[in-house]
Amino acid sequence: MTRTKRVKTASWRNRENLTGYAFVAPMLLGLILITIVPAILSLIVSFSDWSFIQGLDQFKFVGFKNYSRLFSDQVFMTSFKNNIVLLLVVPIQLIISLALAIIIDKFVYWKSFFKVVFFMPYISSIVAVAIVFQLLFAPSYGPINKALESLGVANPPKWLADLHYALPSVMIIMVWVGIGFCLIVYLAALQAIPRDMYEAADIDGAGQWSRFWKITLPMVSPTTFYLLVTGFISTFKAFDIIMVLTQGGPSYSTSVITYDLYTTAFVSLKTGYASSMAWVLFACVLLITVIQWIGQKKWVNY
Amino acid sequence: MRNQISAGRIIITIVMLVIGIAFLLPFIWMISASFKPEIDVFKYPIEWIPRHWNVYQNYRDVWFGDHPFAVYYWNSIKVCVLTTLISVTVSSLAAYGFTHVEFKGRNALFIIVLMTFMIPSYSIIVPQFILFTWLQLFDTHLGLILLGSFSALGTFMLRQFFLGLHKEYLEAAVIDGAGHLKIFRSIALPLVKPALATYAILRFIWTWNDYTNPLIFIRTDTLETIQVAIQKFASESGVFYSLIMAGTVSAILPLIVIFIIGQKQVIEGIALGGVKG
């Protein structure tokens, strides 16, 4: 540390303190109002059976009843299970985007053009994307099924209208939307690999395939790990796409925790119960973050 | 040898072009459908280039019809611009404070800011709703703007850039007797301009695409922003798919424009944040 030698008088310290608080105050006050107070309120309410249409005098604590009720709640358990299935989106996304990133990095002309192409779905609004896919996936008149029929598929799936295909259809769209982000991050990681590592491999006579397994894959493993974690967290936050595309249907086959939370809070108006869902959601995200902290040290080859 | 490699490269580029076009087919279909009269939308084989054009009527109906997109557009622009301005200001102030001012409790406060980043927004949306009703911020644009303006992410991202500034450079100014506000405005801020641009563009895009907050915090139809408006429009106008597609094109278009202008900033910002983790 090189610090200018200066007598730090008490009055200087005082002024520095006040200046510091002034600089961070707007952000802190905003966060207190928007995030911290609501988080505390949500925790308190999750132990009550309160509804916000009731007055505060109706407020009554019920202990852990909301939380224990979650386990026997069919809809919530289905939503939770769907969230777990949605995690599959992330590895699929990573494999496709790593492959594309390697090809774009080394084997094509117009690199930045391809970056833009694959990034397009990521910046587009998920609402617009969901509406477009709703039409593309339409069972009888949608272009996807028309194309499948003309290719000789006799009974193409009903996609979003089918109990078994609805969730996979949502997953296809999620993969499509998320590829761009992973691709950009992977490209940056690939460009950070020192050239001489590959040159050394060339001298050893390593082929493309072993270069990939021995150099590229280990070198991008911190990135893979980061993308895996942020990807998992973002699947738990998926709401817009479900709300616009399927509203959790058909018969809850695409319901997720956030959607169940939304309907419980704003349609059934069960504030307390919805808050307990909110904390289960938070716990899931926290668990993934903790696994990240531990895992970062153990599993990643730097 | 060199020629051979190029030949391979051209072939791979062509293959990738085909994959790229296939990847963008949903967009191409959307744009093409928004140009057609209604009866042509689901014709098969698909008329990628419309045989009959209906561009003017479609877009006029969407922009100035029963659900006037002009109004929702204006609402969205207002909310996005103000959110971005406030968020960039507040975040850069805090980021500077957390890096270059030595005040008591700095690390503890910074950890609190980082911790708020871990709370998923859906976990606190219900109490936010109640709080905003009490504070009479429900169903106002101010409420929406406040919701989007305070993000730990902005503080964290800009702090990374402020950390990169040479300390000696700033301390020289301190010795000259300049106060922190002056150093912040005339030295630190200009030096991190690219980072500010990146964050501003990303914040604008995120706010533009935000659907959940307007869905929950806005009730009056004329205050609606574009994402909720397009969804309501789609579910209410039933079978007018060409109009719905004109709506989705309108909702995405500004982003495409911003993205193409600020492409470098967006991609670098994402790549940087990503690799750093």
Structure description:
By secondary structure, chain A is mainly alpha-helical. Chain A folds into two domains: 10-45, no CATH class; 69-299, MetI-like fold. Chain A is built from 14 helices and no strands. The longest helix of chain A has 36 residues, at 10-45. Residues 1-5 of chain A have low confidence and may be disordered. Chain B folds into two domains: 2-62, no CATH class; 67-276, Orthogonal Bundle (MetI-like fold). In chain B, 75% of the residues lie in helices and 0% in strands. In chain B, α1 (2-34) packs across α13 (241-261), α2 crosses α13 (241-261) and α10 crosses α14. The radius of gyration of chain B is 24 Å and the shape is globular. The two termini of chain B are 40 Å apart. The chains are: A mainly alpha (302), B mainly alpha (277).
Please give the structural blueprint.
The complex is a heterodimer of chains A (302) and B (277).
Chain A: H1 10-45, H2 65-72, H3 74-86, H4 89-106, H5 111-123, H6 126-136, H7 143-150, H8 166-191, H9 195-203, H10 208-219, H11 221-236, H12 240-245, H13 257-266, H14 271-299
Helix pairs in contact in A: 4-8, 4-11, 5-8, 11-14, 13-14
Chain B: H1 2-34, H2 55-64, H3 69-100, H4 106-118, H5 125-134, H6 141-149, H7 152-163, H8 167-175, H9 180-191, H10 193-209, H11 212-217, H12 226-236, H13 241-261, H14 263-276
Helix pairs in contact in B: 1-13, 2-13, 3-6, 3-7, 3-10, 4-7, 10-14, 12-13
Give the strand tally of chain B: 0
What fraction of residues of chain A sit in β-strands? under 5%
Oligomeric nature of the chains? heterodimer
Structural class of chain B: mainly alpha
Q: Work out the largest interface and the residue count of each chain.
A: A-B, 95 and 97 residues
Q: Tell me the CATH architecture of the largest domain in chain B.
A: Orthogonal Bundle
> Over all CA atoms, what is the radius of gyration of chain B?
24 Å
Determine the number of helices of chain A (DSSP H or I, runs of at least 4 residues): 14
Low-confidence runs of chain B: none
Net shape of chain A: globular
Identify the CATH class of the largest domain in chain B.
Answer: Mainly Alpha
CATH superfamily of the largest domain in chain B: MetI-like
Along the chain, the helix and strand elements of chain A come as HHHHHHHHHHHHHH
Major sheet of chain B: none
Indicate the percent of residues in helices of chain A.
over 70%
Give the helices and strands of chain B as they follow along the chain: HHHHHHHHHHHHHH
